[in-house]
Design goal:
Blueprint (H helix, E strand, L loop, with lengths): L1 H4 L5 E7 L2 E7 L2 H8 L7 E3 L6 E6 L13 E5 L2 E6 L2 H19 L4 E10 L2 E6 L6 H10 L3 E4 L2 E4 L5 E2 L5 E3 L8 E3 L15 E6 L11 E2 L2 H9 L9 H13 L2 E4 L5 H13 L2
Parallel strand pairs: 2-4, 8-14, 14-16
Antiparallel strand pairs: 1-2, 1-3, 4-5, 5-6, 7-8, 7-9, 7-10, 10-11, 12-13, 15-16
Helix pairs in contact: 4-7, 5-6
Amino acid sequence: MAKIDRLGWAAGKSLTAYGVRVGIRANNPEALARLTAYLPPAWEPSSSPVVDQLYSLIAGGAEAQPGQRRFNILYSGPVRLARTHRLTEALERFGEDLQLYLAEMARYRLFVHAGVVGWKGQAIVLPGRSSSGKSTLVAALLRAGATYYSDEYALLDARGRVHPFPKPLSLRQPTGAPPRIYQAETWGRGPGVEPLPVGLVVVTEYKPGKRWRPRPLSPGQAVLALLAHTVPARRQPSAALARLQRVVAGARILTGVRGPAEDTAGLLLDRLGTT
């Protein structure tokens, strides 16, 4: 770390997010501005020089000699995360690593891998791994009139309510092209702002040709299903269990594979509307 500290840092800032203090620095102000664009929702500037995690970016900039390009190098503490000719690749790596770090170390919120929408004053939570189809189902729910909260994490407070994590929604493309990014306003509404009680938890994944035929889960089964997608479950199992138990205590929990997202979305909104 001492060797990295001796490099030429021209710009930096400290910030807080979810109770975690983070520092970012770069070898020029323009690179720092690019880093800032990849910060998570709800970050706030901080005046503290002491941070829990420090990211350092050396932006390669212009060519050193004709035909030669400099590397863009990203560090997390003393660990090198990226060494690439593409600055965008280093910036994306920064965003991914910071998001995972916050999900693991957040002090005031429990991060659960899940899509979340709001409907009639309650939250629908869709826990699931990547490629399970949760973002596609979130998009279908938004088209049906729900309010966007997240397609990545459900953020649970000590009362079991869900808070927004409104990063832009990312949808994979069937052609293998880069994901398409959508703002919440795409569907004519801004993202949710207020925390919501959880009204419905849906443990599902997409299977071609299947129909949505859900079955209920017991509260114990529901806690285990959510725990499997809880980021800091191993580091703080007791705290995670306590919050998840509060979530399922007042929610309806369903499981089952689903078919097309549009068909399932309407059925889910109907289910929550009848609770």
